[in-house]
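Quick start: read one record
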Amino acid sequence: MKYMASRLRYMAALVCMSLGLCGPAVAEEYSFGVVPQFEPLRLASAWIPILEELERRTGHRFVMSGTPDIPAFEDAFRRGAFDFAYMNPYHAVMAHDHQGYLPLLRDGGRQLFGILVVARDGGIDDPAQLAGKQVAFPAPNALGASLMIRSDLAQRFGIDCVPVYAATHSSAYLNVLLGRSAAAGGVMATFTAQPETVRNGLRIIHETQRVPPHPVVAHPRVSEEVREEVRRAFLDMAHDAGGQAALDRVPFREIVAATMEDYQPLRDMNLERFVE
């Protein structure tokens, strides 16, 4: 029965993620949005075990609230549709400005940076060679994979490219492998998660500066008591093998408490001109 219930929740989450049907939760049930870096099946397989651990440790219920693509995810957090969410650092700044979302946790064992990849045997070695060429990005406002890469191309290399938005990191990488784009923006976490055939067909030619990685955030309508229960549950998960195994799927290598001050440097990067 436990397996069947878990399976039914898993399938329900996939439907919500594909159709964007899950909305804000009520009472002791909380919605949890996840930025759609990957396809719904992959996101659900990573996050549902974590949400089940949170339920066991806090006594609250968490429902994965899906969106079909990153622009839809942005629209949802701007409207305050999520009680909790996992989002990129610049999204955290946007979400704080629009709704007052508060960072709770982040990975303290790594930093986020954008990478620019090209076909391994495509003959492009310098980002300056991409002037006027088509470059694939997962979405306009993906931080490392789009905003920071487009900023570097324009301000550091002085070139204009032709951006195309492929909806996910995986699709952006595939655009290059299939010869549809000369390059793609991504981040190291999603690049290393690709199948070996994808990784072996691509080559990294540029990395951006480093910033603190994706936080888990909470809407201010969630009580401080519940926010702290969730923060503590995540931190406690890192202290046992089963909990850390679930966190590794995101990945959270060294989960630590986060605050808005961690992401203040992003305001100094002048990325606003690249936000769409």
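The chain is about 40% helix and 20% strand.
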